[in-house]
Design brief:
5-stranded antiparallel β-sheet; single chain; alpha+beta; 939 residues; 6-stranded antiparallel β-sheet; 31 helices
Length: 939
C-alpha cells in the first residue's frame, strides 16, 4: 500500500510536470503578490530567463493603470473567489503585452494564475472595433437623415456621431446660402457646441473653411499649427493636432462644408470614414432642404447603396429581407423583388448558385441575425461562401438599428468581399518568405537594429564577415559585435558606424556613405553603406535598416583606372600627334599637350567647349566657318562608320601652310552605341615636302633611264630612220628621171613625190617617238588606249627584235576599257620590259627565241599587260629581288630599270610583278586600274 507521504510526493511530481510543461504561463505568488514560482512559459511571456521572476512583485510586471485594479482583485481572491479577467502586463524590456488570466487562491494561502497571451487577438478586435465604428458611423449618418427630424437636429446628431466614432475634439457643419454665398454654422458637437460666435457666418473663400468651399477640394493636415489663418495660441491651448475639412458636394454643387478638429493624428481609415460621412451629409442636407424631392432623394440613397461595392442587406425582426443593394443582387444573380420578404433559408433554397453551401451554414448565418437582435451588439464575422463554382470570402458586419423608443426594428448587414484581400495577404506572406530568402542569399551585408542599437535581424553574409553565428549577434549592439568578432582588427572604427546611425535618426531620407572595416591581416574591406529609418503606421521610427555592399574590388579597380588614366594622359601628352576626344555634342573631354600648344590654349580653357566656342580666340580664327562645318561633318561621318576614317587637312597656321593627316573614329560601348569621338591629327607637312622632292628625283632618275635605254636603241633608231631616208633618195632620183623624159611623165613624177612625202612622215614619226621618250617633262595623265601604247613601243624595239632573229608574238584583246595614265612613263615601262626580254634571249643563246606581248581584261577593275620571253629565266629568289634598286643580272646593268618601272606602275595605282614562264624564260606583268576621273579625250 502506498503511504500518504508517497501519494503526496506522486501528486506533487504530477503537479510539477504539469506546471513545467504547460503552454500557458503559470504564476504562483504569496498573498502579498511576491512571485514564488513561475514556469518557463510564464518567463518567456515576459521576456525573462527561467527563475528570474522569483522574488519579484506582481506590481513590477503590471502596467501602471492596472495596479489599482490588482488590489481590488486580490481582495476578491482572498475571499475565495475565482477571477477570469484581461490584464496588460509589462515585458522585461518595458513593452506591453495583452493577456487573459484565470486566478484563484490555493489551500496554502498562495495565489495561482494561468496567463495566456492575447495581444494579436486584441489587435484584431481593435481593428474590428475601428471598422465597426466607421461602418456604424455611416449607418448612423444614414439613419439620422432618414429620420423625420429637422435639419438642425439631424446635423447635430450627425456631428455628435462623428465626434463619438472618430474620437474628434469637435466637428462643425456650415451650409451655404445660395443667394448671398454666405457659409452659416448649423451644427457643432464636441468641446464646442455653440453655433454663434465670430466664425458662425463668413463668405465663401474666407478662412480655410471658405477656401474648401470655393475650391471644392478636401483639405487635411496632421500639423494644424502650420495651417494659415489658424489661431495657433488657441490650437495649442486646446491641444489640437490635426484638421480635416470636406466640401459637401452634390452633383458638383457645394452646399456646405464639414470640418473636424482632433487631438490625435488622423489615420487613413478615419479620413475614409469621415469622407464617406461627408458624402452622406451632403446627400442628407440636399434631401432635407427639398422635401418635395423626397422620391429623388430616396433614389439617390438607393443609388449610394448600388454604387457601393459592399453587399448591403436590411432585414426585419423576423429575418425577412426588406432592402438590398445592387452589389448584393448581382452577386447572387437576383433582383430586388426576388429577395424582398424572404428569409436567408428561403433565398438559399431559391438560388441554385448558393446550393453548394450547406444548409447548416445558412442556418448559422440566420442565427447570427437573431443574435444581433437579441444582444443588441454589432457582430463581425468572416464567411467562406460558394457563389456558383467560385469560392468567395466575405467579411460581414451586422448591426441592429433602433427606433425612437430604443427598440431594434431592423438588422443592417454589410458584407465586404475580401477574397482578393485574402489572396493578396497569402501573396504577401509568400513575398515575405521570398524577401527573407533574398536577404539570406544577398551578397550585401544586411542587418536591422532597434533605436538602442541592438541587432534585431542579420543575414548570413554579415555574420560570416565577422566570423560570428547569427544567433550570437541578435540582441547585441554593434560595439559588442566588434568586441566579439575574432577578425575585426580596428575596434575604434565602430565610432564611425555609431555616428552614421545618429545621422540616420535625424535625416528625413535614406543616407549613403562609404565605410571601411579593417580585418586581421592588414586587409581593409570597403562598403557602400545605406542606412534607412524604418517607421510604424503612425510614422514613428522603430528601427534602422543597414545594407552594405562590398566595393573593395571596385575601389581597387578605380585606383588602377586612375593610374591607367594618368599613364594614358602621360602618353598622350608626350605624343607629337595632336589628340582630342569630344562628346556627341562636340564638347572637348580630353586633349593632349600637342593639341593645346598648337591652339595656344590651356586645357582648362578647352575642356567643355566646342570648336565653335574657341574659334574666335584660337589661331584658327582666320579660318572660314565653312571649314569648321566640314570638321563637324567629318565627326558625324565617323559616328556612322564602323572603322576609322582619314583625310588630309591643309591649314594656315601662323602664316605657314601645314598639312595634317586626320584620323577620326567613334568610341563605343560594348552595345555598339557611340559615346565620344577620337581625333588624331599627325603633322605630315615635312613628309609631304619630302615626298614631293622624292617624286622630283624619281622623275630625274626615270629620265636618265630613258636616255640610257634610247642609247641602247641607237642602232634601231638609225635603222628605222635610214629606211625611209633611203626611200626618199630613191624616189627623188625616180622623180627626176620621169621629169627628164620628153615629154615628161608628170603622173609618175607625182607618184614619186607622194612616196617621198610618205617616207618623210615615216622618218619624222620615228624621230618623234624617240624625242618623246627623251623629253624631260612633268607627269601628265590622260585617257589612254593600252593597245596603242603597246603597239607604238613594240615598233621602237622592232629592229633589235629582227636583228637578233627573235619571233615577236602579239595578242591584243579588243574592247578594252580606257585607262588613265602618263603615256611617256608607260612607254618607258614597256620598252624596258621588251629590252630586258631581248637581253635574256640573247644570254640564253640559240634555241627557240620567242618574245610575246599580251593585253587582256584581268577583272572588272583592271587590265593586264604581260611580256614573256624564252630567255635564261629567273632564279628562285629573283621574282622579288629583280625590283630592288641596283640589283641586276647584266654585266653592264645599273639595276634601276625594273625598280623605276615598279614605281611608275604603283604611281598609276597598279601592280608590277615577275614569274617564271613556261616552258622557259620569264614573264613580267603589270595590272592597271580602268576608268578615268575626268573627261579626257582618248589618246
Amino acid at each position: 500500500m502506498m503511504s500518504e507521504m508517497d501519494k503526496l510526493r506522486a501528486s506533487e511530481e504530477r503537479y510539477r510536470i504539469i506546471f513545467e510543461n504547460s503552454v500557458c504561463g503559470v504564476f504562483v505568488s504569496t498573498a502579498d503578490g511576491v512571485f514564488t514560482d513561475v514556469n518557463a512559459s510564464g518567463c518567456r511571456l515576459l521576456g525573462y530567463e527561467p527563475g528570474a521572476l522569483a522574488g519579484k512583485s506582481i506590481i513590477e510586471v503590471l502596467a501602471p493603470p492596472e495596479v489599482a485594479r490588482f488590489f481590488d482583485a486580490r481582495e476578491s481572491l482572498l475571499a475565495g473567489e475565482a477571477i477570469y479577467d484581461e490584464w496588460t502586463l509589462l515585458k522585461r524590456d518595458g513593452s506591453p503585452v495583452e493577456t487573459e488570466a484565470s486566478s484563484q487562491m490555493l489551500p496554502d494561502g498562495r495565489l495561482l494564475a494561468f496567463v495566456r497571451n492575447i495581444t494579436e487577438r486584441k489587435k484584431a478586435e481593435n481593428m474590428g472595433k475601428r471598422q465597426f465604428r466607421h461602418t456604424a458611423l455611416r449607418a448612423e449618418v444614414q439613419v439620422a437623415f432618414s429620420s423625420g427630424g429637422s435639419l438642425p437636429s439631424v446635423l447635430q446628431s450627425v456631428t455628435e456621431s462623428i465626434v463619438r466614432h472618430l474620437d474628434a475634439a469637435f466637428v462643425r457643419v456650415w451650409l451655404i446660402d445660395e443667394k448671398t454665398q454666405i457659409l452659416e454654422l448649423r451644427a457643432s458637437a464636441g468641446i464646442y457646441t455653440h453655433i454663434d460666435g465670430p466664425h458662425s457666418r463668413f463668405k465663401v473663400g474666407q478662412y480655410k473653411i471658405g477656401k474648401i468651399a470655393a475650391l471644392k477640394q478636401f483639405f487635411f493636415s496632421n500639423s494644424i499649427l502650420e495651417i494659415e489663418m489658424i489661431d495657433k495660441a488657441w490650437a495649442t491651448r486646446e491641444g489640437l493636432v490635426s484638421f480635416a475639412g470636406f466640401p459637401l458636394i452634390v452633383n458638383d454643387k457645394v452646399v456646405g462644408v464639414v470640418g473636424m478638429f482632433s487631438r490625435r493624428l488622423l489615420t487613413d481609415d478615419a479620413l475614409e470614414a469621415f469622407e464617406a460621412s461627408a458624402a452622406l451629409i451632403a446627400q442628407g442636407v440636399v434631401r432635407k432642404q427639398a422635401e418635395d424631392e423626397l422620391r429623388e432623394k430616396q433614389a439617390l440613397l438607393q443609388a449610394f447603396f448600388d454604387i457601393s461595392t459592399e453587399l448591403i442587406q436590411i432585414k426585419d425582426v423576423a429575418g425577412r429581407c426588406i432592402m438590398t443593394n445592387r452589389a448584393f443582387q448581382e452577386t447572387l444573380g437576383l433582383s430586388g423583388e426576388d429577395c424582398y420578404g424572404k428569409t436567408t433559408i428561403e433565398i438559399w433554397e431559391a438560388v441554385s448558385a448558393l446550393r453548394r453551401n450547406s444548409r447548416k451554414m445558412m442556418e448559422d448565418y440566420r442565427d447570427s441575425d437573431l443574435e444581433a437582435f437579441n444582444t443588441g451588439k454589432t457582430s463581425r464575422k468572416e464567411d467562406v461562401l460558394f457563389i456558383g463554382d467560385d469560392e468567395r470570402v466575405f467579411s460581414t458586419i451586422k448591426s441592429p438599428l433602433y427606433d425612437a423608443a430604443g427598440k431594434p426594428y431592423v438588422i443592417f448587414s454589410i458584407s465586404t468581399d475580401v477574397t482578393e484581400r485574402r489572396r493578396a495577404e497569402n501573396k504577401l506572406r509568400a513575398e515575405q518568405q521570398l524577401l527573407q530568402s533574398i536577404i539570406e542569399n544577398s551578397t550585401a551585408l544586411i542587418h536591422v537594429q532597434d533605436l538602442d542599437n541592438r541587432v534585431l535581424l542579420v543575414n548570413r553574409n554579415f555574420a560570416e564577415l565577422l566570423r560570428l553565428e547569427p544567433e550570437q549577434m541578435i540582441g547585441k549592439t554593434e560595439y559588442e559585435l566588434w568586441e566579439l568578432s575574432p577578425v575585426a582588427a580596428d575596434k575604434t572604427e565602430i565610432a564611425d558606424f555609431r555616428a552614421f546611425d545618429a545621422e540616420a535618426l535625424t535625416a528625413g531620407m535614406p543616407l549613403q556613405k562609404e565605410m571601411c572595416i579593417s580585418l586581421i591581416g592588414d586587409e581593409k574591406r570597403y562598403f557602400l553603406t545605406t542606412k534607412s529609418l524604418l517607421r510604424d503606421e503612425e510614422g514613428n521610427p522603430h528601427s534602422i535598416c543597414t545594407v552594405a555592399t562590398d566595393i573593395s574590388e571596385i575601389k581597387r579597380a578605380e585606383k588602377e583606372l586612375r593610374a591607367s588614366q594618368q599613364l594614358l594622359q602621360t602618353i598622350f601628352d608626350n605624343t607629337p600627334a595632336q589628340i582630342n576626344v569630344k562628346d556627341l555634342n562636340g564638347r572637348f573631354l580630353i586633349t593632349n599637350r600637342a593639341f593645346e600648344q598648337n591652339l595656344g590654349l590651356s586645357r582648362e580653357t578647352l575642356l567643355g567647349k566646342t570648336l565653335y566656342d574657341i574659334w574666335k580666340i584660337s589661331p584658327f580664327k582666320d579660318e572660314s566657318r565653312d571649314k569648321l562645318d566640314a570638321v563637324s561633318r567629318l565627326d558625324e561621318e565617323a559616328l556612322k562608320e564602323e572603322k576609322a576614317i582619314q583625310n588630309e587637312n591643309v591649314t594656315i597656321l601662323a602664316g605657314e601652310e601645314r598639312t595634317y593627316l586626320v584620323t577620326k573614329c567613334a568610341l563605343k560601348y560594348d552595345t555598339g552605341e557611340p559615346y565620344s569621338i577620337l581625333t588624331i591629327a599627325t603633322d605630315f607637312t615635312e613628309m609631304r615636302r619630302a615626298e614631293k622632292e622624292l617624286r622630283r628625283l624619281q622623275a630625274e632618275l626615270a629620265h636618265a633611264a630613258r636616255v640610257m635605254t634610247m642609247g641602247a636603241l641607237t642602232t634601231t633608231i638609225a635603222h628605222e630612220v635610214n629606211q625611209p631616208l633611203a626611200a626618199v633618195v630613191m624616189n627623188g632620183n625616180a622623180c627626176l628621171r620621169w621629169l627628164a623624159i620628153d615629154p615628161p611623165n608628170l603622173e609618175e613624177a607625182r607618184n614619186a613625190v607622194n612616196r617621198i612625202i610618205r617616207d618623210g612622215i615615216r622618218a619624222g614619226e620615228v624621230i618623234e617617238r624617240a624625242r618623246g621618250l627623251l623629253k624631260k617633262s612633268p607627269s601628265q595623265k590622260r585617257a589612254l588606249d593600252i593597245n596603242d601604247i603597246v603597239k607604238e613601243t613594240a615598233a621602237l624595239a622592232q629592229y633589235e627584235i629582227q636583228k637578233n632573229e627573235i619571233l615577236l608574238e602579239t595578242r591584243y584583246a579588243t574592247d578594252l576599257p580606257i585607262i588613265e595614265g602618263d603615256k611617256i612613263q608607260l612607254q618607258q615601262v614597256l620598252l624596258n620590259l621588251l629590252m630586258n626580254g631581248i637581253d635574256a634571249i640573247k644570254a640564253a643563246g640559240g634555241g627557240d627565241a620567242r618574245l610575246s606581248v599580251e593585253t587582256r581584261q584581268k577583272d572588272d577593275d583592271h587590265i593586264l599587260v604581260a611580256v614573256k620571253d624564252s630567255g635564261i629565266g629567273l632564279k628562285a629568289d629573283e621574282p622579288d629581288r629583280i625590283f630592288e634598286s641596283f640589283y641586276t643580272t647584266k654585266k653592264d646593268g645599273m639595276g634601276m630599270g625594273l625598280s623605276i618601272s615598279r614605281s611608275i606602275i604603283e604611281a598609276h595605282g597598279g601592280r608590277l610583278w615577275a614569274a617564271a614562264n613556261e616552258p622557259k624564260g620569264a614573264a613580267i606583268q603589270f595590272a592597271l586600274p580602268v576608268g578615268i576621273r575626268n573627261n579626257y579625250e582618248r589618246t
